[in-house]
Amino acid sequence: MPIQVDVAVLGGGPGGYTAAIRAAQEGKKVAIVEQGKLGGTCLHLGCIPSKALLRSAEVYASLLHADTYGIKLSREAVKVDFTAVQERKEGVVEQLHRGLRQLMKKHGIEVIQGRGRIIGPSIFSPKSGSLAVELEDGEMESVVSRHLIVATGSRPRQLPGLEADGETVLTSDDALRMETLPSSMLIAGGGVIGIEWASMLSDFGVRVTLVEAASRVLPGEDPDVSAAIAKALSARGVRILTGAMLQQESLSKDSGGISVAVRQGETEERLQADRLLVSVGRIANIEGIGLENTDIAVQDGWIKVKPTLQTAEPHIYAIGDVTGGVQLAHAAAHEGIAAVEHLLGLMPHPAAPHRIPRCVYSRPETASVGYTEEQARAAGHDPMTAKIPFAAIAKAIVHGDSEGFVKVVADRGTQDLLGVHMVGAHVTELIAEASLAQFLDAVPWEVGASFHPHPSLSEALGEAMLATLGKSVHF
């Protein structure tokens, strides 16, 4: 007999397991089908392991500059044990994995380990959307549900001529498994992943060259943010080439690493490095999941969904990376909740894509929510901006790292808060206040009038809000 549930979730990443928990909270019988480890890319090959490595790199860099704080350490006494760094990363991942498995037990969610595929209607389900699951031992299991949520995620995009081999040409997945640090790394792509790896590796002492096709790194962010990150990384020795393209068929490999030509305008040069990391976006995991057995539409490689997150088959939803859009774990989790609340007949709060916080965990960090100044103008607003440097904030000076700023974008006529953009230490912790302010439709004076403890980095946000009105106190 098949396993019969109210809600089946195909994929156990942040979107999938969050959806499962929300459905279980409402008393629904739920099953997750996951071919890998519960937690998906974020927990095992993305957000968490990369942040663990970034933290180790940050600590190492801080120790190398301990004399800034009156602590005397010889450079020879500070060494990187990369094996231990990787062991710590694995320990962090496993601790969170254990906690996630316990959450599934707590909510009575059945987790089926295997590869799931959507099949057509059966005697148990008049609608397509039932799942055939190939278990790890090769046996088959059937899952029949009233509703199905597809949350199969994405994987790194590869470039013809620069395909990953796991040794010298790497995806971000491969890079997380490195057993030793290279002496040099060439990174193709100056988006979030490329910037985080450039920051991490340079902190570990690796020579980094970063190539970005756009005119600036982090091209989706405010230009001031892009400029600040480029300046910070360049100051640490990272060579950044923008408006540049790797000549994909020019790659050569030998015992010394890789060599590839790069064209920047009319100039072409050949770059060499121990390894090449290709971080040029991601593609949806839609192969082999049975979409051909449904009426689900695929557009540009992504599952097409309605604002309700329903596919062309109303009882089948799709969430997270597999739909394209904002490819962030917290966006997928929000969509998981929204999909479940919609199938329950509730009124979920829709998330405007530009109001989803965006974070880069480099050194310094970046964090943004809402429109950039350019986007606000394109949307028909008359934007005004204010920017407060962390150098004006006591806690940043005490912290010993006062680079960066908080920039606020507001509408000149209505005073509406349109966007907040930050660069600096711990700004990924500060962006939630700006996100909440937008969610509640707060205007800058309301945020600025609320208490921001002294000394704290949050004062920069309060001061920037007041600065839109010309009322900043400390700058």
Please describe what this structure looks like.
It is an enzyme of class 1 (oxidoreductase). With 475 residues, the chain is of the alpha/beta class. The chain has 3 domains: 184 residues, 3-Layer(bba) Sandwich (FAD/NAD(P)-binding domain), CATH 3.50.50.60; 123 residues, FAD/NAD(P)-binding domain (3-Layer(bba) Sandwich); 104 residues, Enolase-like, domain 1 (2-Layer Sandwich). It contains 13 helices and 24 strands. It has a 5-stranded mixed β-barrel with strand order 1-2-3-4-5. A 5-stranded parallel sheet has the order 7-15-8-9-10. A 5-stranded antiparallel sheet has the order 20-21-24-23-22, sandwiched between helices. β1, α1 and β2 form a beta-alpha-beta unit. α1 runs parallel beside α8. The mean pLDDT is 95.
- Radius of gyration, in Å, reads 24 Å
Intertermini distance = 70 Å
Beta-strand segment tally = 24
Q: Tell me, what is the CATH class of the largest domain?
A: Alpha Beta
CATH 2nd-level architecture of the largest domain: 3-Layer(bba) Sandwich
- What coarse outline follows from CA principal-axis ratios? globular
Structurally, how many domains make up the residues? 3
Average of the residue pLDDT scores: 95
Structural class: alpha/beta
CATH topology annotation of the largest domain: FAD/NAD(P)-binding domain
- How many H/I helices? 13
Strand order of the largest sheet: 1-2-3-4-5
- Ranges with pLDDT <50 over ≥5 residues? none
CATH homologous superfamily identity of the largest domain: FAD/NAD(P)-binding domain
> What share of the residues lie within helices?
25-40%
Largest sheet: 5 strands, mixed, barrel
